[in-house]
Amino acid sequence: MEIKILGSGCSKCKALAASAQQAVAELKLDATVEKEEDMIKILAYQVMRTPALVVDGKVVAQGKVLSVNEVKKILS
After folding, report:
1. Using one digit for the tens of pLDDT, what is the confidence trace for 9-19?
2. How far apart are CA 45 and CA 24, in angstroms?
């Protein structure tokens, strides 16, 4: 599983990345969590609001910081 956090590197983006990493650890998933800060690459996902969560190439959330439990629900 490939998980990407799209955003500029702001505090909200970092918080979403932390939630995603913790969710992956708690679920014991074989997944990588990457942060993408390149705006050209972010726009390729047609994301207009950050932070955004992408799972296996599909945008599953954008524009808000998800809690660990919210990320776990998405990944389960």
Report:
1. 899 999 999 99
2. 22
